[in-house]
Amino acid sequence: MRVPYAPSEPPNEEARPVYERIAERRKPRPLIPLDLALLHNPAMADGWSSFIGAIRTKTSVPEGLKELAISRVAVLNSAVHEWDIHAAIAVKAGISRDAMQAAFDLPVTKKATVQKEGVQGLTGEEYAVLCYTDQMTIGVAVEDDVAGKVKEFLSDKQVVELTATVAAYNCVSRFLVALDVGECNGRGMKAVKDL
User: Fold this and answer.
1) What does the alpha-carbon distance between residue 65 and residue 126 come to, in Å, rounded to a whole number?
2) How far apart are CA 93 and CA 98, in angstroms?
3) What is the rounded CA–CA span in Å between residue 173 and residue 150?
4) Domain enclosing residue 165, as ranges
5) pTM, to two decimals
6) What InterPro entries is this protein classified in (predicted)?
7) pLDDT tens digit string along 121-139?
8) CATH number of the CATH domain containing 89
9) What CA–CA distance (Å, rounded) separates 138 from 157?
10) Which of 55, 87, 124, 136 could form a disulfide with 71 if both were Cys (CB 3.0 to 4.6 A apart)?
11) Rounded to an integer, what distance in angstroms lies between the CA atom of residue 48 and that of residue 160?
């Protein structure tokens, strides 16, 4: 990593409750390199953990679609660690390997005609989520047709949740890649068959 990791144990009593909250969220796993990078500033690490924890566990977007979006962000931003973790979760959540391969291979959708039946192994819903993710990640603005297609199968609340998920994981991936957290830059992403 481009800076040393913060200590894995609280350096002072003020930081202890933050370390404990993050460790509780990670249970049974230990703190991960991302945590140890963020813990240079315990207050920032605490807010990050709370926000990403809510994105991960307190949304109503179907798990597979959420993880598909996160995986696509990882591909677009070359975030190896993010892909390796979240693509495997997407498969466990029911996204087909063909759909994951499409998420890995499809060119970026800058202008879209969202097709009802999807493309290249994707359902129409999966393809709409990828188009939405692409436009948010690459161009920031989302076309009305793409947003409209997502609204056909997600409630208003879920559209907000999907948007927050894509935004949050763009933040995560940019942090991971900029600092080379986990020393993953330059390493290849897991092949879909190995997820």
Assistant:
1) 7
2) 14
3) 23
4) 63-194
5) 0.94
6) AhpD-like, CMD-like
7) 899 999 999 999 999 999 8
8) 1.20.1290.10
9) 23
10) 87
11) 18
